[in-house]
Amino acid sequence: MTDTDFLEGQIILLDKPLDWTSFQAVNKLKFKLKREFNLPKKFKIGHAGTLDPRATGLLIVCTGKFTKIIPEIQDAPKEYFTEIKIGVQTESYDTEKPEILQQDISAITEEQIKETLEKFLGEIDQKPPIFSAIKIEGNRAYDLARQGKEVEMKSRKTTINYITDIEIDLPFVRFTVGCSKGTYIRSLAHDIGQDLLVGAYLTNLRRTKIGDYKIENGSAEYLKDEYSFENFNQ
Length: 234
Prior knowledge:
Layout: H1 3-8, E1 11-16, H2 22-37, E2 45-47, E3 56-63, H3 70-74, E4 78-86, H4 110-119, E5 122-126, E6 135-136, E7 139-140, H5 141-146, E8 156-169, E9 172-179, H6 185-196, E10 200-210, E11 213-214
Parallel strand pairs: 3-10
Antiparallel strand pairs: 1-3, 2-3, 4-9, 4-10, 5-8, 6-7, 8-9, 10-11
Domain Pseudouridine synthase II N-terminal: 42-185
GO molecular function, one term: tRNA pseudouridine(55) synthase activity
Keywords: Isomerase, tRNA processing
């Protein structure tokens, strides 16, 4: 790769580490590229779809002229490996907040869990988590929630295209989910728990696919090995 390649445009597939924000991942990559290729301070770079800090997996970064297709990539369907824990909840619907409201799950059967998952296939109404980046009157919902303020999230339409590879190892349930743009898998986990009447929250989330881009293709196609995240510690 040369400086011209990045300035004219590249699509870079990254495997975002746990606890990194998407913004941090792009900034780390931008710093490395600027240093290694002597790129101008304001060269175009951006990601095509936020991935929660508590999630790992595919983050697509575009540079140069390819930043123009970011909206197109963002609109593409997504796929996630998902693990939820039933019988307990958290305020954030994931591992950011401590467990609360523990329930007895001894009466829950595998058949009941699979029937519940099937209920969520197709177009559904979904409320985003209050700990999300959605703006409410100019403020991020997660900022309001962390200040202890009441946050009212409005339902929105989303589509669950498929749920496959179901593995039940109570209290954990693992599956692969394909969904439309704007789907919150944290909310899906919470809603599954509500349908089962015992609660649930998201314990592991890994984005594996965006449109035709797959995590197994990795960043090696676009970056040398020294640009792996293990070396982004400065």
